[in-house]
Amino acid sequence: MAARETGYGDTDGQIFIGKGEQPAWLTLGLANRHGLVTGATGTGKTVTLQVMAEGFARAGVPVFAADIKGDLSGIAEAGEAKDFILKRAKEMGLTFQPDQFSTVFWDVFGEQGHPVRATVSEMGPLLLSRMLDLNDVQEGVLNVAFRVADDMGLPLMDMKDLRAMLDAIAPIAAKVAENGDVNADIRQAAQALGNVTKQTVGTIQRQLLVLENQGGESFFGEPALQLKDFIRTDNQGRGLVNILVADKLMSNPRLYATFLLWMLSELFEELPEVGDPEKPKLVFFFDEAHLLFNDAPKPLMDKIEQVVRLIRSKGVGVYFVTQNPIDVPDRVLAQLGNRVQHALRAFTPRDQKAVAAAADTFRPNPKLDTAKAITELGKGEALVSFLEGNGTPAMVERVMIRPPSARIGPITPEERKAIIAASPVKGKYDTAIDSDSAYEKLRDRLEGKTAGADAAPAEGGLLGQLGSLVSTVFGTNTPRGKLTTGQVVARSVARTVATTVVGGLAAELGKKVGGSMGSSVGRSIVRGTLGGMLRR
């Protein structure tokens, strides 16, 4: 195929990445098979990421990338014809042509880009537990809070909603624990609620406070991000480049990694199956990817592997960017077919292991000592192996990465401000909305605005005994103004549990509750692959 006359070196259906003895092209039709960009600090990973993002955008493929240091923001402004850029372009047979790309900046904190928000329900208990670094018991309690909130029709939108819900479920089990002479049936009902204790709830609340102090509170709320706003093209048919400003976000690595994982899970849930399209619908760059896998429990690792394996059929390509290939678990690494390896330094035994692991992942080239070459690569050089033909990896080649067409390095605050002002999503997310959700509904019950707030609990059997206990402990004639939110809602929980929580968990408990009770479970919660809730 003849190269386009734009001077970028791309061909129809391929992106020109660099050149050694042979040109290195990334095939668009195989770009959703995912990829990996690795190398030590200062070896050129960010420039390679920019070159790839430019190529995708020119081909009409939207891009999402996290900008850890601010350097990637230069893609929004035209490049400069500096001597080293002109020299490298000439060596590759290119005509340097300055270019810039339509860019939207996003920022979880809303300071250097449009705010990014998700509701607590969308995040789900699994990912939220990961974000809060909860243990198994605490995660179980969080699951109970989500379940009860869903069954009671209490939307969890922001952190104050979750706090109110946690306060609401604690009193039942706590009061059971304080009354040691209650019978076994009542204790069983409390266990069905997950053995929720004040101590466990208090620990979760403290972790929520830590997350809030780190700025996490601004992430949860409305208007929630609509991922379709990532999948856009500009008026020239080029893919929109979405950049997440992540310099401040990186001060909380767990929040950063969990946030990006949530985005992947939402994409997986929302996008339809498309098989293997001619080009991806979206390419997702996950920088500092090792943060995703550090100390990840097995259930989470299983879900990560599942999403990476299956999201390609949604037309999404995921490219992990990290220093060492050993940062990525083998079962995920096996899904990454397009590889760019910058230099690694073999100063320590771990470094030597990383070099050997990187060399072993490439298809051997008889003309190249891969392990030796990895330690000898200069800045801007890389070992490259992209998928070709029927999806088999090409032999590894040593190439020089082509120069970007846009600016190398960060933009100025004034330039960023102008880009944000002209954004296609200007005004859509910039103002937070505090809708009528769990906190407000619980407050209304406390103030007596909800009809039936004082209705008597269900009577008879196991659940009736629990309801009676709650009524006895809390009292039925206590003025509402003196009740806590948790006490008021505990009554509702006692009533709701009769047809929801206990019924839903009866099969696992194998105790008295079952049969007709199991068939009376109310709305069932439908959680996505990583705990996100499918919107109804």
TrEMBL record:
Domain of life per record: Bacteria
InterPro entries: HerA_C, P-loop_NTPase, T4SS_component
Domain Helicase HerA-like C-terminal stretches: 19-519
Matching PANTHER family: SLR6007 PROTEIN (PTHR30121:SF6), UNCHARACTERIZED PROTEIN YJGR-RELATED (PTHR30121)
Protein name: Helicase HerA-like domain-containing protein
Gene source species: Rhodopseudomonas telluris
